[in-house]
């Protein structure tokens, strides 16, 4: 997935989970039944849960998660009339050395008895032989009788035809019916056949998809997937909401510090400009003084004629102090600061950069322990239209608030090349326009 596409996704769309697709098409959380002998009896211990999780993931998708730590995420109890069952959901803390995960499809094989048929050679009985011979004799008799039934032919032609038919039938009688020694009999046999059953197919699904998906039929498995998705989403909302509150607590002092730093920087830049202008004035004064001294020496030499006049030796040419490098100010969004806000930015496609003020107020009231006065003081910096940080009473432009000013030096050589290219392009366009005008193909409205 390219970076541009990932940048457009909601943070919940970047988080992916592994689900297991069963033969009936349903998608469930990976796992299975706890085994006291293999995993241990006390499921309240983390070691027992880890053994069960590692065993089941290895069994279902051939994933070795033994090196990971597991964290208990959720415990669901189902109280029935006869018994009570529990579903314990744990999440692994994946280490970079086992990424990327490559889950495999679990396929079970089964040997079954399959009935089929095959042909077998069996000797003919005497009754079957007699029946074949009898059928053959009856067929010869029918053919002889049929040969007698021709009409409308001359007697000579009839005699010749009957003689030929009789000769042919006599030869067939001598050859016989060709009774075979055996016959093919269809016999039922049972063979072993191996059948493959796809038991568990790995499915990689984003958190955003899990939250938006509605099951066609609510089952225990689909319920657990939905509850886990909402629980994880609320966990992320809490984490990002706490980061927003911390950001708001630091916003006022940070803005004051940035304003002070900006003011101090302007003062330093002004002092540097004054110092540079002062050095330039000293440079110009030295050049002027040097030129005047040389001119006076030459005039004195001309006035005295042939007399020897000592002309002061030229002093080294003073050097012009280097001009301070030009800089430009660019605005860069601090993605680390904007990340918690993007989780509450529900815009489709590209992030809008805005968050509802009511939602911001709800985050502060829900996750913070503030009174009304403290809430107003906390949100006061967000109501100021500082650098366009808040352009609406209903929306807070967090992206502008998280935009930082950065200075970068201007590449003079690159700027000169770019300017030369622009001039060349303008000259080329002007020459082309003149050529078209001279040919009369370019018209200009009056």
Number of strand segments: 10
What structural class do the secondary elements suggest? alpha+beta
The major beta sheet can be summarized as: 4 strands, antiparallel
Give the end-to-end Cα distance, rounded to a whole number of Å.
Answer: 56 Å
Description:
The protein is of the alpha+beta class. 51% of the residues lie in helices and 21% in strands. It contains 13 helices and ten strands. It has helices at residues 3-8, 11-14, 36-39, 46-61, 126-147, 155-175, 207-212, 220-304, 335-342, 357-367, 372-383, 398-401, 412-439, and strands spanning 16-21, 27-28, 69-79, 84-93, 106-123, 182-206, 327-333, 354-356, 395-397, 403-409. The strands form four sheets. A four-stranded antiparallel beta sheet has the order 2-1-6-5. A hairpin with a 5-residue loop joins strand 1 (16-21) and strand 2. Helix 5 packs antiparallel against helix 6 (155-175) and helix 8 runs antiparallel to helix 9 (335-342). Mean pLDDT is 80; it is low at 385-392 and 442-446.
Search tags:
single chain, four-stranded antiparallel β-sheet, two-stranded antiparallel ribbon, 10 strands, 51% helix
What order do the helices and strands come in, and which of them pair?
Elements: H1 3-8, H2 11-14, E1 16-21, E2 27-28, H3 36-39, H4 46-61, E3 69-79, E4 84-93, E5 106-123, H5 126-147, H6 155-175, E6 182-206, H7 207-212, H8 220-304, E7 327-333, H9 335-342, E8 354-356, H10 357-367, H11 372-383, E9 395-397, H12 398-401, E10 403-409, H13 412-439
Antiparallel strand pairs: 1-2, 1-6, 3-4, 5-6, 7-10, 8-9
């Amino acid at each position: 997935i390219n970076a541009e596409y990932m940048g457009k996704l909601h943070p919940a769309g970047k988080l992916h989970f592994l689900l297991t697709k069963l033969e009936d098409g349903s998608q469930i959380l990976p796992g299975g039944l706890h085994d006291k002998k293999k995993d241990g009896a006390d499921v309240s211990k983390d070691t027992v849960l880890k053994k069960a999780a590692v065993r089941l993931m290895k069994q279902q998708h051939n994933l070795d998660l033994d090196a990971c730590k597991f964290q208990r995420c959720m415990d669901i109890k189902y109280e029935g009339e006869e018994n009570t069952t529990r579903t314990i959901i744990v999440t692994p803390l994946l280490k970079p050395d086992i990424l990327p995960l490559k889950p495999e499809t679990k396929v079970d094989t089964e040997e079954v008895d399959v009935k089929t048929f095959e042909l077998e050679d069996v000797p003919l009985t005497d009754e079957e032989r007699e029946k074949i011979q009898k059928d053959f004799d009856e067929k010869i008799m029918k053919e002889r009788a049929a040969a007698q039934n021709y009409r409308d032919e001359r007697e000579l032609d009839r005699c010749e035809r009957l003689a030929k038919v009789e000769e042919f039938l006599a030869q067939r009688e001598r050859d016989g019916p060709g009774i075979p020694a055996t016959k093919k009999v269809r016999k039922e046999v049972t063979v072993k056949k191996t059948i493959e059953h796809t038991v568990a197919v790995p499915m990689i699904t984003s958190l955003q998809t899990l939250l938006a998906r509605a099951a066609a039929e609510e089952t225990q498995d689909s319920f657990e997937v939905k509850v886990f998705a909402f629980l994880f989403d609320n966990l992320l909302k809490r984490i990002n909401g706490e980061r927003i509150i911390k950001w708001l607590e630091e916003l006022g002092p940070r803005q004051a510090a940035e304003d002070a730093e900006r003011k101090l920087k302007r003062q330093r830049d002004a002092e540097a400009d004054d110092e540079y202008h002062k050095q330039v004035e000293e440079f110009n004064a030295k050049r002027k003084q040097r030129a005047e001294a040389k001119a006076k020496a030459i005039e004195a030499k001309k006035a005295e004629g042939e007399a020897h006049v000592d002309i002061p030796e030229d002093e080294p040419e003073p050097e012009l102090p280097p001009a301070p490098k030009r800089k430009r100010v660019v605005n860069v969004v601090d993605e680390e600061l904007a990340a918690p806000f993007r989780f509450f930015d529900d815009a489709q496609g590209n992030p809008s950069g805005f968050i509802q003020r009511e939602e911001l107020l709800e985050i502060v009231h829900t996750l913070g322990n503030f009174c009304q006065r403290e809430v107003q003081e906390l949100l006061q910096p967000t109501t100021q239209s500082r650098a366009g940080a808040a352009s609406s009473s209903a929306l807070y432009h967090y992206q502008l608030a998280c935009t930082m000013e950065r200075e970068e030096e201007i590449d003079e050589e690159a700027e000169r090349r770019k300017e030369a290219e622009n001039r060349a392009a303008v000259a080329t366009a002007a020459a082309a326009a003149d050529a078209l005008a001279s040919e009369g193909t370019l018209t200009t409205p009056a």
